[in-house]
Amino acid sequence: MALAHGANSLFSGRVVALAGGVGGAKLAHGLAQLLPPEQLSIIVNTGDDFEHLGLLICPDVDTVLYNLAGVNHPQQGWGRADESFHVLDEARRLGHDAWFLLGDKDIALHLMRRQWLDAGLSLTEITSRLAQRLGVWHPVLPMSDEPVRTVIHTPAGDLPFQEYFVQQRCRPRMMGMTLRGLEKARPTPAVMSALQQADLIVLCPSNPYVSIGPILALPGVREAVAARPAVAVSPIIGGRALKGPAAKMMAEMEAEVSALGVARHYAGLVRGFVLDASDAPLADDIAGLEIIPLVTDTIMRDVRERRRLAAEILAFAQDQLLREVV
Ligand code: FO1
């Protein structure tokens, strides 16, 4: 393990990453390359979860697990590498409208999750079991054990998140969103304890509304993040999202579609903000929000670039964000 975490000296404290979607999983993986399991926990959005074919699908949790295990689909980012679709093909033949692509290996994981849910295990316990069996040793923590379901308000009515995202390909205009179940949901004790013990919290380059938003909306989480040194990484580069609907959503929610718009969204919550080199002219305006900017290449094309970005963020945090508290 010492070799795998050779850049350990970059940061000596405990790090918590907040993640959702493919960008979040990539940076979480980069951090996991540098920090041992005692120094890194990943808190994952569950607002994208949904029941489908009698299974509980947790796309963001699974995307983090698969990326950390190194078994993710290399191009898509979500789902498994070397996947087959025999079960879905057969279900289609039997009349299933297969708008959501579940591969055979992925279905195996969902069957195990279903079995353990039925046996009374919590989502946190199940995720820990799945992680161990996939050889993932960093704590991957679902944000809550109670169901929270993101619903997108559109002119055509309310759409459960995956219907909006996958079935409708994010085409309907987003007028707002609701987190169904939020009133009964709590962050798990593991989530709260990780946040309270964190020396640094990293808001990954995930969608600020539908990936990071649900985590921050849980009671006590925003306050816990605001109480620790935190850095956010912009998912918007040159006015566009690399993947997913973040840019479209920001425009529809009447936010400025830029790294500055994202920094404004997180103002008051984070001390540091990482933006892409191509957005360097925005750095002064971000500093004007009393947020220290780090300008660097934020596109993670391969595993080496995930690790490099993670290392730069840790060094930046150590040098510039923790001065007052260390
Ligand atoms: N995204 C798609 O665009 N189409 C799919 O058919 C699809 C299937 C899927 C299955 C399992 C899984 O874990 C993720 C899957 N995703 C799919 C991705 C998922 O909808 C999104 O990555 C997240 O919900 C957004 O964060």
Give the name of the CATH architecture. 3-Layer(aba) Sandwich
**Low-pLDDT residue spans:** 1-8
**Tally of discrete structural domains:** 1
Ions, cofactors, ligands: which are bound? Answer: ligand FO1
Average predicted confidence as pLDDT? 95
Number of helices: 13
Biggest sheet record: 7 strands, parallel
SSE order, one letter for each helix or strand: EHEEEHHHHEEEHEHEHHEEEHHEHEH
Measured as a percent range, the helix fraction is 25-40%
Query: Strand tally, please?
Result: 14
Label the structural class. alpha/beta
What's the CATH first level?
Alpha Beta
Coarse shape:
globular
* % residues in beta strands: 15-25%
CATH superfamily: CofD-like domains
Strand order of the largest sheet: 5-2-1-9-10-13-14
Question: How are the elements arranged and paired?
Answer:
Blueprint (H helix, E strand, L loop, with lengths): L14 E5 L1 H14 L5 E5 L5 E3 L2 E3 L1 H11 L16 H8 L10 H15 L4 H12 L5 E3 L6 E6 L2 E4 H7 L8 E5 L8 H9 L2 E4 L4 H10 L3 H6 L3 E4 L2 E2 L2 E2 L4 H7 L6 H7 L6 E5 L6 H5 L4 E5 L6 H19 L5
Parallel strand pairs: 1-2, 1-9, 2-5, 9-10, 10-13, 13-14
Antiparallel strand pairs: 3-4, 6-7, 6-8, 11-12
Helix pairs in contact: 1-2, 1-13, 2-5, 4-5
The protein binds ligand FO1.
